[in-house]
Amino acid sequence: MKRTVAWISRATLIALALVTTNYTANAQQAKQASSPTASEKQAGNNFHSSFASGEFAFNGRGVVQGAPFSAVGITETTQILSDGSRINRRRVTSLFRDSLGRTRSEWGNETGKASTSAVPIIYDAVTGAAYFVNTRHGNALQLSPPVKDNSLRQVKIVTPQSPPDDITRLAGERVEPLGTQIIEGLKAEGVRVTTTIQAVGVGSNRSDKVVYERWYSQELRRNILIKCTDPRFGEAVYRLTNIDRNEPAQELFTIPAGYQIQPFPAHRPERTLKSGYVK
Fold it and tell me: How far does CA 69 lie from the centroid of its chain?
């Protein structure tokens, strides 16, 4: 019982972190610039929306169907400190999506194959339900419940045949279409956005440039490569690698029979606060 509640508590913290990431990022941005301009805010939003959020959002904004794949997403960031030293971070995630739009992501897994030791996030695009799944202990934390009547769901369905997205609809002083190139075997369309900001530092009269570059696959309906350089936050690169266009196994997107499903937010007895997390 302690192990069950402890891992749910850990998953709860992760879920809350996903929700609060953008808020925290914006707060950090506000501290570094006393009165940021609209373009400065937008440049910061470009950076954080690309590199500080989860690979898959289960917020109902849209579901991609008819474009299955498995891949590994790699995010690498470099934070440049005031003394010139650098802090490098790397995050890997195995990603899966089936033809129905159901998704699975496994943090820390760079194999591109499902791991029995991972704690994946599963989003069932058919029912709208989302789960953290503990494959080791046979539990699942239900982040959002399934919709009883799917006819009531207001979800935009996107397919490779849908009208192409206009990836140049970004705010910035200079928006440059970059044409197309083949990345990871897929045709990708690129755009670069350059924004002028006030240089970091109290009393500075200099200006700096934020450069945001995005390469998007209309066929896969997701980003293949993102690069961003922002003097306030550092440098970041996101790459989608090892892309397999075959249909993933259907059991990756369902909760196995016999698993105990705990609604969110989970109840955490006071005694478990001293037990720590289960590794």
Answer: 16
**Residue 80 identity:** I
Tell me the whole-structure pTM to 2 decimals.
Answer: 0.76
> Smallest Cα–Cα separation from 55: which of 240, 253, 189, 251?
240
Contact between 86 and 79 under an 8 Å Cβ cutoff? The reply is: yes
DSSP annotation of 151: G
- Which whole-number Å values give the CA distances from 40 to 22, 44, 48, 235, in the listed order? 15, 6, 13, 16
Do 66 and 161 contact (CB within 8 A), yes or no?
yes
Structure tokens at 102: 């159901």
Q: Which residue has the tokens 């402890």?
A: 6
In terms of CATH architecture, what is 2-273?
A: Clam (2.50)
- Model confidence band, residue 170 (pLDDT cutoffs 50, 70, 90): confident
Report residue 67 CA to chain centroid gap.
Answer: 18
**Whether 125 contacts 101, CB under 8 Å:** yes
Question: How is the chain split into domains, by residue range?
Answer: 2-273
241: nearest Cα among 222, 254, 213, 265: 222
Residue 56 pLDDT grade (very low, low, confident, very high; cuts 50, 70, 90): very low
Q: Could you report how far apart the first and last alpha carbons of the chain are, in Å?
A: 15
**Residue linked to tokens 């089936």:** 98
Q: Which uninterrupted H or E stretch holds 30?
A: helix 2-32
Q: Which two tokens stand for residue 274?
A: 């001293």
Residue with tokens 């240089």: 199
Extended strands (E) in 184-265: 186-198, 207-217, 222-230, 234-244, 260-263
